[in-house]
Automatic annotation (TrEMBL):
Residues 26-91 form the SMc04008-like domain. It holds the Pfam family DUF1244. Coiled coil: none annotated. The lineage of its organism: Bacteria, Pseudomonadati, Pseudomonadota, Gammaproteobacteria, Lysobacterales. This is DUF1244 domain-containing protein. Gene3D superfamilies: SMc04008-like.
Length: 98
């Protein structure tokens, strides 16, 4: 019988690969606008899960686990400055996300 945790872990790894290798063009702000979460949220959730399991982890370690590199490096390679339109859409979407 297949372990559900293994399937979930595989799906999570695939999501990270998709976001960090195949869709580097998708900005975190766009993810926040459309889905209410971004790569940084994933890193926060990862860190929270680690801490709940008794594994000490800081924000930068969690971000490196999610981004596959130090966050500063990811940011310099892939993150563009948010446009006024993105910022306005983000503000408008804030009420839709928890």
């Amino acid at each position: 019988m297949v372990d559900t945790v293994q399937l979930e872990a595989a799906a999570f790894r695939r999501l990270l690969q998709h976001l960090n290798q195949e869709r580097t063009d998708v900005q975190n702000i766009d993810l926040m606008i459309l889905a209410g979460f971004c790569r940084n949220c994933l890193a926060d959730w990862y860190r929270e899960a680690a801490q709940e399991a008794g594994v000490p982890m800081d924000k930068e370690q969690a971000r490196q686990a999610v981004y596959g590199m130090p966050f500063a490096e990811w940011k310099s390679r892939h993150q563009a400055e948010a446009t006024p339109e993105q910022l306005a859409a983000f503000e408008a979407s804030r009420g839709r996300h928890g």
